[in-house]
Amino acid sequence: MTTSPLTWALSVAGAMAVGALSYTQWLAPRLADDAPSLAVATAAPTTPGPRVPATLAVAADYRGHYIVHPSIENYRITMMVDTGASIVALTAADARALGIKRDASTRSMTLGTANGTVVGFRAMLREVRLGEIVVRNVEAVVLPEGALSMSLLGNSFLGKLRGYEVQTGRMVLRS
Fold first, then answer.
1. How far is Cα 171 from Cα 165, in angstroms, rounded to an integer?
2. 114 Cβ contact partners less than 8 Å away, ≥ 6 residues apart
3. Phi/psi at 112 (nearest 5 deg)?
4. H/E/C letters for each residue in the chain?
5. Are residues 21 and 76 in the same domain?
6. Residue 121 CA: distances (Å) to CA of 106, 144, 167
7. Taking a C-beta distance cutoff of 8 angstroms, is the pair 77, 69 a contact?
8. Same domain, residue pair 102 and 25
9. What is the pTM of this model?
10. Considering the domain boundaries, does residue 136 fall inside one?
């Protein structure tokens, strides 16, 4: 059975589109992480120009969750994007890794979760970097050991973006 030229052309175009999406979703961010010297070689011009908005597309995992790996205070952690969470919520282990400790100046915060009420303490994150998106002064809460299985990237981060949208199987964040 022979393949028509139109079918062949559509197959090639589809393969190219999948390859391009794979590159932008998987390979390009890894190349950027592995090439810090390249950033020095392509430094920004000396005269400040208009800030170019950054966009990041995140594919949903097999459960439909959007898992990201932002750098907070130059430490990379795993978080789930949670549009229903009003604030960034850190696990106790992630907070320890970030050097966030409870002291006399920290305020307690009571949160209602799907699993009931939990008491944590407030923290301020100086910088949350997700790909090319950088958000400063992000309010967070540190929850006690065992309250979360993974830190949540909530609306105290998402609300500082220009916007975000959920499309079929992917979320697009815009700074």
1. 6
2. none
3. -95, 120
4. CCCCHHHHHHHHHHHHHHHHHHHHHHHHHHHHHHCHHHHHHCCCCCCCCCCCCCEEEEECCCCCCCEECCEECCEECCEEECCCCCCEEECHHHHHHHCCCCCCCCCEEEEEECCEEEEEEEEEEEEEEECCEEEEEEEEEECCCCCCCCEEECHHHHCCCCEEEEECCEEEEEC
5. no
6. 6, 9, 34
7. yes
8. no
9. 0.68
10. yes
pLDDT of residue 116: 81
Residues in a beta bridge with 58: 171
Give the span between the Cα atoms of 116 and 94, in whole angstroms: 21
Task: Write out pLDDT tens, residues 107-133.
Answer: 888 888 777 888 999 999 999 999 999
Say if strands 88-90 and 133-142 run parallel, antiparallel, or are unpaired: parallel
Flag whether 50 is in a domain. Answer: no
Residues 166-175: b if buried by 16+ CB within 10 A, e if exposed: eeeeebebeb
Tally of domains in the chain:
2
Range(s) of the domain holding residue 11:
5-37
